[in-house]
Every structure is written in C-alpha cells, then in structure tokens.
C-alpha cells in the first residue's frame, strides 16, 4: 500500500506541483488549503506524513503543528514544514511547534523527495523500535491514601519474580514515598532527569539514574522534598523518560499517584495497561467512577483498565466487591485484604510485602492481580 502524504498549502499552484511530483514517486496524496481543514483531514485520513506551509489565512502552520501534537490521534504523524520563511528564528519556531524537518521554498524536487524519504524512513524505524518496547503499566489512585504506592510496589515485585527485568518508576516529584519505603535515603533520579535539557535524554542518561534494590527491582525514584513538586513535568519529557525505561526493561510499572495532570494524561494514553486503585467505601468508589469516565474520554477504554480495591483496615462498614461492581458498572479485578501490621513490617525491612512474606495471604492476592494483568495485556495485544 502506498504511503499517504497530506500536503497543506494555501497556494493552489504549489499544492498541485508538490502533489504531482510526489504522486510520480508513488505516494498517495491528500490536500488541504487551510489550517482547520488540515487538522480535520489529518484526523480523518491518518496520513504517514504531513507537508505543512507556515503562512495560511485562518491559522499559521506553527499553530496547526501544535494542535496536531496535542491530539493523541495525530501526535505521532511526522511533519515537514515547507515554507518561504527562511530566518533562523522561523526554523526554531517550527521545530519548537513540533516539526520533524524544515525545508525552505524554493527547493529542487529531488531535495524534497529526499527529505520525504528520510522522514518516512525514520518513522518506520521508530515504529519498529516501539514494537520492541517493554510493557508499560500505569498505576493511578482514585484519591490519595488508598494504597496506590503499596500496590505499585508489590505488583512490580510480583511481576519481577516471574519476569526479571521489571522497572518501578515513581513520577511524583516532591511526594516520592516509594524511595523511603524501600530504604533509599536519597531519591533524586527523576529530579535529575527533569532538570536536564530534553536533548540530553537518552537510554544511557535515563539508565544511569536507576538504582537497584535487594528485591531485584530497578527503580527510578522521586524525592519527598516539597519544592521539587514545582519541577516542570512537561508531558513530552515524562513520556520520553518512560519510553527509554521501556527500552531498558521488559516491564515498567509507574506510580502516577492521583490526578489527571497533563503529564499523567500523556502517560495514561501511552500505557499498555492502566490499574486504577480504590477502596471499598462509597466516596472513593464514586470518585473512581468519575476517573473511569475521564479515562474513557482520553481513549483509555475498559479493555485497557483493571480496577483493584485495597482494604486498609478491617471494618464492618466496607462495601462488598459485588456492590462496588454495581456502583462502578465495571468488573473488579482484585481485592487486597487488610494487612496493616505486615505492611508496616515490610516498610521497616525496606522490602515489598511480596518478598518479605511470600506465603502471606495478601502476597497471594498481589500475585493473582499480577497474573490477571499480564493475561489481559496479552489478550489485548492479540486482539489489537
């Protein structure tokens, strides 16, 4: 099947000339003469490449590029800006808006064809690399205090016991309790990466910030220093860090904490599977239902989501899992029984419960949830 290219230019003569030249190269051509039309066609046609003019009547090419990059369905389509604007500042603005290449008019047809081939080749290589990335499991709580970090930690430990190479990442700067729970006095890995230029982020740089735990897990940690909560969690930076982690491990479990910040939204859209953590009480369950609706709006449907309830203490007022399913309108994948004393012992020993007490009832539940998630991930990949 011929690769599809969307050409965007308000000059109809340029549109026809570029389209004819690329058609002769064997590409399928789609055309748009305005910014809004370009965004609509990019969404509907899913082209393999967009050649985008900067100067257009309704919105300039920079704004078109920004909007395409903000839309999950178009954010990965490569863009070549092809324009008469030749100043260095114009080129910088183009790349900052999300362009993959910048070509100035007039240009020789052979150069345009060469740039098109190069960008499409890079996209093909990127897709091939993406197919080899490890599984990304995002763990998010419906509210604070429901046991999200405890579940993420023990889920990662259970996964690592059957598939070595699991990485556990805490992406909550200023609130990184995971490092403390596992005995690390300093937890600066994520902060170090967030304060580096995005151009410096690569597998080696990300890998250098991982620390090894006695359980066999490799960890990317956040600190509990309150001022680090103000670090810039740019979605593209967080996404890039996790992508590099996926190249370093078979499984990457990421503790997102709570809330749908722009960075969390980006991670959730890119995650292989999402685990939503709640507890069997009416207020958290209603908050969970709202979160599930928002996830669905982000394109993260029921097939990619598991719901786990954590019982933090024995109580006759807890809602049964059957009633919880009725409130949520979704199946519950697992219920963690209360084990406050054991969890405190695990913190004192700086170990996941799964490693501290392999035969405990709560450990069996963590392991069952890990098995179910792996099964669901495998099923979704087969159907996908």
CATH architecture of the largest domain: 3-Layer(aba) Sandwich
Radius of gyration: 24 Å
**Portion of residues in helices?**
40-55%
CATH class of the largest domain: Alpha Beta
Enter the CATH topology name of the largest domain: Rossmann fold
Helix count from the secondary structure assignment? 16
Fourth-tier CATH superfamily name of the largest domain = P-loop containing nucleotide triphosphate hydrolases
H and E order: EHEHEHEHEHEHEHHHEEHEHEHEHEHHH
Write out key terms for the chains shown:
2 domains, alpha/beta, 384 residues, 5-stranded parallel β-sheet, Rossmann fold, single chain, 16 helices
What do you see in this structure?
The protein is of the alpha/beta class. The protein has two domains: 126 residues, Response regulator (Rossmann fold, 3-Layer(aba) Sandwich); 251 residues, 3-Layer(aba) Sandwich (Rossmann fold). The chain has an eight-stranded mixed sheet, with helices on both faces. It has a five-stranded parallel sheet with strand order 2-1-3-4-5, with helices on both faces. Helix 2 packs parallel to helix 3, helix 6 crosses helix 16 and helix 10 packs parallel to helix 11. The longest helix has 23 residues. It is elongated. The two termini are 20 Å apart.
């Amino acid at each position: 099947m011929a690769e599809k290219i969307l050409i965007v230019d308000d000059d109809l003569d340029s549109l026809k000339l570029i389209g004819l030249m690329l058609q002769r190269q064997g590409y399928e051509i789609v055309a748009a003469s305005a910014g809004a039309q370009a965004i609509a066609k990019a969404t509907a046609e899913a082209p393999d490449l967009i050649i985008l003019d900067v100067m257009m009547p309704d919105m300039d090419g920079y704004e078109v590029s920004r909007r395409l990059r903000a839309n999950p369905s178009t954010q990965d389509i490569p863009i070549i800006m092809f324009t008469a604007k030749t100043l260095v500042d114009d080129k910088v603005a183009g790349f900052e808006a999300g362009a993959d290449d910048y070509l100035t008019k007039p240009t020789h047809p052979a150069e345009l064809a060469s740039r098109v081939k190069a960008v499409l080749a890079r996209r093909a290589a990127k897709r091939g690399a993406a197919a080899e990335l490890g599984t990304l499991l995002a763990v998010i709580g419906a509210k604070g205090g429901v046991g999200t970090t405890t579940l993420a930690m023990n889920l990662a430990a259970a996964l690592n016991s059957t598939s070595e190479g699991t990485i556990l990442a805490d992406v909550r700067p200023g609130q990184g309790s995971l490092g403390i729970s596992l005995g690390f006095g300093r937890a600066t890995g994520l902060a170090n990466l967030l304060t580096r230029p995005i151009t410096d982020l690569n597998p080696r740089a990300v890998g250098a910030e991982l620390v090894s735990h006695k359980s066999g897990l490799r960890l990317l940690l956040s600190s509990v220093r309150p001022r680090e909560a103000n670090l810039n969690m740019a979605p593209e930076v967080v996404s890039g860090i996790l992508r590099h982690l996926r190249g370093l491990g078979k499984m990457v479990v990421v503790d997102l904490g709570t809330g749908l910040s722009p960075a969390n939204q980006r991670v959730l859209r890119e995650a292989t599977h999402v685990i939503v953590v709640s507890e069997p009480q009416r207020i958290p369950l209603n908050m969970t239902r709202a979160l599930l609706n928002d996830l669905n709006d982000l394109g993260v449907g029921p097939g990619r989501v598991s719901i786990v309830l954590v019982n933090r203490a024995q109580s006759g007022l807890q809602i049964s899992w059957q009633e919880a399913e009725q409130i949520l309108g979704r199946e519950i994948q697992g219920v963690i029984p209360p084990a406050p004393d054991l969890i405190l012992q695990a913190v004192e020993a700086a170990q996941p419960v799964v490693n501290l007490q392999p035969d405990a009832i709560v450990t069996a539940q963590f392991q069952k949830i890990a098995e179910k998630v792996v099964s669901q991930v495998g099923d979704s990949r087969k159907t996908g």
